[in-house]
Write a structure and sequence with these properties.
Strand content: under 5%
Helix content: over 70%
Radius of gyration: 36 Å
Number of strands: 0
Length: 291
């Protein structure tokens, strides 16, 4: 979905070619120019850039540290909660094994070991323990399956929200590092060369025409470079607006909505399974005798 990388031939070759080094040797010339060199922003696209883009960028930039910190905490707390449930599932499994061992080893009543008839009290309690052990095993499976589902899906969705803000922070860092250009310096040089050109024409010393042509050519080259810098600035602003409007704004809201709806629906289903298991356990043990 990336507006630039999706059409990048070098990246596509890197991901699909068996040997990237071999591909480089036999491929046509690879261009390492910035996208702004080959892609121009038309008038309609330029007009779509809001006039207050810099203000919007400053607002987003100022919010990022707190957003990253809070979402990092949310991810850590969520993982800690479900790691505890994962541990609880393991303890329930151990409890089931212990109960099973107990009922297997303690299979007859000590009070009447030689009695021909069964001990109804002992047998009734033992049967209840066997059924209870089965429900504990079911509970262990339910809790473990839910924990694994959260750790592999819901938690990853929350981390995706955190990573989106981290990526935006890195985007601003790249913007600050890579967006500066030479336009201001070139303008000053054009002004200086313009004054030199006027002086050369005014004095008209020997060889002044060749010197004037040389200065004029330098001015023309700098003016072309200035135009390229201006086009690059527009391209950068358009790219930043696309990242903020399409990537950040849409995804930060969609990811939260999807994650919360998924967690709520799955937790509801999980709780229903827990309730059903213990309701069945109530029926299993309600006939356990007291005497």
């Amino acid at each position: 979905n990336h507006p630039i990388l999706a059409a990048d031939g070098v990246l596509s070759a890197f991901l699909t070619e068996p040997s990237f080094e071999a591909w480089k040797k036999h491929s046509t010339a690879i261009s390492y120019d910035e996208e702004s060199v080959s892609k121009r922003i038309d008038r309609v696209e330029e007009m779509s850039i809001p006039a207050d883009l810099d203000e919007k960028m400053n607002v987003v930039r100022s919010k990022l540290p707190d957003l990253i910190e809070q979402w990092t905490r949310i991810c850590a707390i969520t993982e800690r909660i479900w790691r505890r449930r994962e541990a609880a599932a393991a303890d329930l499994s151990r409890l089931n094994l212990t109960l099973s061992t107990l009922t297997e080893q303690n299979h007859c009543c000590w009070h009447q070991p030689d009695a021909q008839g069964a001990c109804d009290l002992f047998d009734g309690v033992r049967l209840g323990l066997i059924k209870f052990s089965s429900r504990v095993r079911n509970q262990s499976d339910i809790v473990d399956q839910r924990a694994q589902a959260v750790l592999s899906t819901s938690l990853e969705q929350l981390k995706g929200q955190r990573d989106l803000y981290i990526a935006t922070r890195d985007l601003f860092a790249r913007h600050a590092r890579l967006s500066p250009d030479r336009a201001d310096m070139l303008r000053k040089r054009v002004e200086q060369n313009g004054r030199r050109l006027e002086q050369v024409k005014a004095t008209q010393k020997d060889g002044w025409q060749a010197e004037a042509d040389k200065i004029s050519n330098a001015i023309e080259r700098d003016q072309m470079d200035i135009q390229s810098c201006m086009a690059r600035r527009v391209f950068i602003r358009h790219s930043m607006w696309h990242e903020l409007r399409v990537v950040l704004h849409n995804r930060e809201n969609a990811l939260v909505t999807q994650a919360i709806q998924t967690v709520v629906a799955q937790e509801r289903d999980y709780e229903r399974m827990v309730i059903n298991n213990w309701e069945a356990a109530v029926q299993d043990v309600e006939t356990m005798p007291y005497e």
